[in-house]
Write a structure and sequence with these properties.
Blueprint lengths: L1 E6 L6 H11 L4 E5 L6 E5 L5 H10 L4 E3 L3
Antiparallel strand pairs: 1-3, 1-4, 2-3
């Protein structure tokens, strides 16, 4: 399963956010395209919970929405 999100992550906080996501979803592949205007967060793995990911980012003060494609 792959989930793709539009975010407003910033360069200063992207590493800590990725670290927190990796700790919560250790079996998933996680990356962020900071060069994209939508700061795309892509998570690939068996147990991906879009709701939980959006909640985690909101807790860190960031917006995150599932990207429709």
């Amino acid at each position: 399963m792959v989930e793709v999100f539009k975010t407003n992550l910033n360069q200063q906080r992207v590493r800590p956010v990725i670290k927190a996501l990796t700790e919560s979803f250790p079996a998933c592949k996680i990356n962020v395209d900071m060069e994209d205007c939508d700061k795309i967060l892509r998570i690939e793995g068996e147990l991906v919970s879009a709701k939980e990911i959006m909640k985690m980012l909101a807790k860190e003060g960031f917006q995150c929405a599932v990207l429709d494609y």
